[in-house]
Design a protein that fits this description.
Layout: E1 6-8, E2 15-19, E3 29-35, E4 40-43, E5 52-56, E6 63-71, E7 74-82
Antiparallel strand pairs: 1-2, 2-5, 3-4, 3-6, 6-7
Length: 84
């Protein structure tokens, strides 16, 4: 189950390192980034390596984004701030 997410740095420019809760099993979770209107802008699910992922905001506008970790019926959300 999603318990905690760590995003470093936040705010970021242009990329952030995402540390996922230990013990997540591939295939049992998704990791996606959405803009404030709810449109998915990145799917990081297949980019997770050893409980970590890199979010590259290149090509995205300055602003607020939401990272969603979803799995086994629960979701965890973290607000991301992209600054230029």
């Amino acid at each position: 189950t999603p318990q905690s997410l760590v995003v470093i740095p936040n705010p970021f420019n242009p990329s952030a390192f995402i540390r996922l809760p230990a013990g997540l099993k591939r295939g049992y979770f998704t990791l996606k980034v959405f803009d404030v209107k709810g449109k998915m802008v990145r799917d990081l699910t297949n980019r997770v390596v050893n409980d970590c992922a890199l979010f590259d905001g290149t090509g995205l506008a300055t602003g607020t984004y939401v990272l969603r970790l979803a799995g086994t019926g629960k979701s965890k959300f973290v607000k991301l701030e992209l600054i230029r």
